[in-house]
From TrEMBL:
Residues 50-349 form the Aminotransferase class I/classII large domain. Transmembrane segments: none annotated. It comes from marine metagenome. The lineage of its organism: unclassified sequences, metagenomes, ecological metagenomes. This is Aminotransferase class I/classII large domain-containing protein. InterPro entries: Aminotransferase_I/II_large, PyrdxlP-dep_Trfase, PyrdxlP-dep_Trfase_major, PyrdxlP-dep_Trfase_small. GO terms for molecular function: pyridoxal phosphate binding.
Amino acid sequence: MFIEFEMERFQSLYENEVDYNLSDSGLHPLTIKDLLNEEEINHFLNMEIGYGYTQGDPVLLNHVAQWYPGQCENNVLITNGSAEANFILAWSLIQPGDEVIMMLPNYMQVPGLAKIFGASVKYIHLKEELGWHFDMDELQSLLTNKTKLISICNPSNPTGAVMSAEELKQLAALAREYDAYIHSDEVYRGSELNGNETYSCIEFYEKAIVTCGLSKSFAHPGLRMGWLVADESIIKDLWSRKDYSSICASVLSQYIAIKMMQPNTRKKIHARATSMLSTNVELFQNWLNTHPDLFSFVPPKAGGMAFVGYKMDINSTKFANLLRTEQSVLIVPGDCYGMDGYLRFGIGSPSDYLSTGLNLVSQGIKNIGY
């Protein structure tokens, strides 16, 4: 059985065909000249393009590990984007007959893979009235002896909600009771609007597996650079699976990633994210205010996206396609998360670009009579 990855298919078909792409949940990228100095660029241009280390350059492994308290390079595996990290994790852990509990709404790669690999999927729903958090008692009611994996996204895609340390402790306690793994997708960690970095799940649970990468809070999806962080025994198993997928990540991308993951550079990149998003959340809220009583909105705590409910009598995919074809603006319909009646806007672009795109959305709203 194959499950189409609806959101990625939608974006892949149209994101490069519109004038204003507001479907991206990351930050606007920098250039190589922005990231590397003249000496580093000269070195980059003279690099031999070989295979490199299949588990990842040791320097990069060390820099990534430093971002996670108590971890070392043996706890890290470098992948081609966090999408490969998610794939390897699902392939390694999930067997036919397993149960997977998935936070919803969420990035829908893992539940699709779980179904393809023969697992049954249960959903723990984030609730708008709880600030897009879930109820721990409800999660406990879903757990059984067949539960292999609990999959979360923290900070959340698409809501931007952030789990507290206390919530992560409670989650770890429940997973430990049922001997389940926790997958924590943390690609938006580092883009917090208040500048306070989200706790990593790896700090709270011995069977946590973190996936992350440079596409979202680090703003550089074109590098296709991701990683897994877990107990050393888990990493060894995941690495053996990677031999069957991509073998290794690009040595060129890893060279740039080494610079990006140096503590001082990492902090500068994340400070830029905080500044951009703080400005753009205010811009987005001001735009919503021009459409009174039409939207519900809980502002994100992190991440380059805004998830809004709407009170228009139109299906979310139909509305997104109308905006695409008539206004040349792309947004993500709530249908992609199994939540019609909602829309995801990317807010990580330059402010003038975002403002123009939102004005075109306003025209689309007017065109359907609201």
